[in-house]
């Protein structure tokens, strides 16, 4: 299987919470990231978590890291139509190379 | 402060033609990267550079060459384009020792 894996699609209703999941096989990375890509645009860093943390909260975003299961998740509270985009999970080291998942396309329906 | 810019935005090539993609950053970043993005596969690293005059291979380097003659520029070359190189190419940069890479808007390349 791939090093970093994500499901390809997620559909939610506006106002609901979205949870995007990611699994990885190599636990040597220092950082785990979530990037957002809007249509026709480059990637924008949403948030990141150090590998020695379990949780990080940043406004509507909550990142959970389960090191034992090598599972990372991104929860978006009160999802809005503007959150519709592709979300990429990635692992990497400080200043180093990033390994990306395939991306999860989030569709938010009004 | 323009951040990371890429030239051109779109290009169509015929098989066997050559071209160079230009990435420029004005943030004085030491590290620069070239990725390709294909449907269902995420981004894959082609080549990267940790400083002026240095380059290294990434995950999928075959068919590409790079040069970093100036700190602010990172060039990606295709000597003989193939249809398998049809993709969206992203450049990124970051400070040495940083956790955050800044991405350019991408170049959509089609090889017929």
What keyword list fits this structure?
heterodimer; A: 110 residues; mainly beta; six-stranded mixed β-sheet; five-stranded antiparallel β-sheet; B: 112 residues; seven-stranded mixed β-sheet; four-stranded antiparallel β-sheet; 0% helix; globular
Structure description:
The complex is a heterodimer of chains A (110) and B (112). Chain A is mainly β and 110 residues long. Helix content of chain A is 0%, strand content 57%. Chain A has no helices and eleven strands. In chain A, strands 2, 4, 5, 9, 10 and 11 form a six-stranded mixed sheet that branches. Chain A has a five-stranded antiparallel sheet with strand order 1-3-8-7-6, with no helix packed on it. In chain A, a hairpin with a 4-residue loop joins strand 7 and strand 8. The mean pLDDT of chain A is 92. Chain B has no helices and eleven strands. In chain B, strands 2, 4, 5, 6, 9, 10 and 11 form a seven-stranded mixed sheet that branches. Chain B has a four-stranded antiparallel sheet with strand order 1-3-8-7, with no helix packed on it. In chain B, 0% of the residues lie in helices and 53% in strands. Chain B is globular and about 40 Å long. Chain B has 112 residues and is mainly beta. The N and C termini of chain B lie far apart (36 Å). The A-B interface holds A 4, 8, 30-31, 33, 40-45, 48, 88, 92, 94-95, 97-103 and B 4, 30-31, 33, 40-45, 48, 50, 58, 90, 92, 94-106.
